[in-house]
Design goal:
The chain has about 160 residues and is an all-alpha fold. It is built from 8 helices and no strands. The protein is globular.
């Protein structure tokens, strides 16, 4: 009989991380703001951050970005099915391209990014949008490793 896993004990919580590494926290926050300021749809980047946080198994970031996505009024159906977006209706061509790109980038340690992946992204995103989406995916991957590695306690659902 398998024993249930205990919740991880936080090594450092989010507030202590920000106090211990204020420049790093500020730099990561600045990357997020820089992408936001480009005009790339916030609903799109939040959907991607939810998916990447699922892939990386980061409970803190997943709950954090689900909270933001709900505040942005992203459809509940999209949030409910984002883990299986390929089989689910309701995602736009831009959302599908962004989610595919996010999955490729987040999994590049396990498999190379297919040659045609960037071309597929560029079919629906400008070069600047594709670049800024890439920055957004890289940033959430960094946050996932920090929050997951330090076992931040997930925020309350809002």
């Amino acid at each position: 009989m398998e024993t249930p896993h205990a919740l991880p004990k936080p090594h450092v919580d989010y507030d202590r991380f920000r106090a211990s590494a204020p420049d790093a926290a500020a730099a990561l926050a600045a990357l997020g703001r820089a992408v936001d300021e480009t005009g790339l749809e916030k609903t799109l980047t939040e959907l991607v951050k939810v998916r990447v946080s699922q892939i990386n198994g980061c409970a803190f970031c997943l709950q954090f970005h689900l909270n933001l996505a709900r505040k942005l009024e992203i459809e509940a159906g999209k949030l409910d099915l984002v883990a299986v977006w390929r089989e689910a209706p309701g995602y736009s061509a831009r959302e599908r391209a962004a989610l595919a790109w996010a999955e490729h980038l987040s999994g590049m340690n396990r498999r190379p990014i297919p040659e045609d992946a960037y071309a597929a992204l560029r079919d629906v995103f400008s070069e600047a949008e594709a670049t800024n989406l890439t920055v957004s995916v890289a940033t959430i991957n960094a946050w996932n490793r920090i929050a997951g590695g330090l076992a931040f306690t997930p925020p309350r659902r809002t």
